[in-house]
Amino acid sequence: MPKQNNQAGMNQANQAQNTATEFASETNVSEVRRQNQQSAAKSSSQTTASQATEFASETNAAEVRRQNQQSAAQSTARQSGGQATE
What we know:
Layout: H1 2-85
């Protein structure tokens, strides 16, 4: 009988250990899921900021291009005007 009681005690200890391990695994999965969601949200906000910066860069490039064309046109007009008076 003592051997049977000892075996039953070991089974209970093993079950308790398995339950604790399972709980820890579920907790870890939950934590990993939370971190993944947080990382995805952070990445999404960085992507939005990056897209805004990219848009601003494209807008700036378009503005510089427009100003260059305007300046070139003015320069050509001045040169044409200067040659006509010479």
